[in-house]
Design a protein that fits this description.
about 130 residues; mainly alpha; Arc Repressor Mutant, subunit A; 2 domains; 6 helices
C-alpha cells in the first residue's frame, strides 16, 4: 500500500501516541509533530477519506483496521531503520527516531527493505 510522506508521519505519530494514551486528540498530535491544529485537521480528513482513521476524529483519533495494517507495515521497516541509526551510527535515541521517520517517509520502500536486510543480517552475525 502506497502512502504519501505526510500520511506516514501522521500514522507514525498516531501509533506512538496510542501507546502512551488511550485517547488521542488533535491538539496532542499537533504538539507531537510541531504543526498547527488546522494542519492536523486537514491531514486527519485526508486519512479518514483514505479509510485509515475513523470519521469521528474530533473527539479521539482512532486507526481503522486498514490504518492499523498500514501502521504495522510502516513499523516493520521503522524498527530496523531506527536500529541502524541508533546502534550502528551511534545517534542519540531522539535523533535516531527522527532520522528513522525521515528515512521511511522519504526513501523508496525497496531501499528500506534493503537496509532492513543488512541490519538483520548483521545482527544475526553478532
Amino acid at each position: 500500500m502506497k502512502h504519501c510522506a505526510g500520511q506516514i508521519k501522521y500514522l507514525v505519530a498516531i501509533r506512538e501516541l496510542s501507546e502512551k494514551d488511550e485517547f488521542i486528540r488533535c491538539v496532542t498530535i499537533s504538539r507531537h509533530l510541531g504543526v498547527s491544529r488546522p494542519s492536523v485537521s486537514k491531514m486527519l480528513r485526508c486519512l479518514a477519506n483514505s479509510g485509515l482513521v475513523y470519521e469521528d476524529f474530533c473527539n479521539s483519533v482512532v486507526l481503522t483496521p486498514e490504518g492499523e495494517k498500514a501502521a504495522d507495515e510502516i513499523f516493520s521497516s521503522f524498527g530496523e531503520v531506527y536500529t541502524f541509526f541508533h546502534k550502528f551510527l551511534k545517534l542519540p535515541a531522539q535523533e535516531a527516531h527522527e532520522q528513522a521517520i525521515k528515512f521511511v517517509t522519504e526513501f523508496p520502500t525497496d531501499t528500506c527493505d534493503r537496509l532492513k536486510h543488512i541490519v538483520r543480517r548483521t545482527l544475526k552475525k553478532k
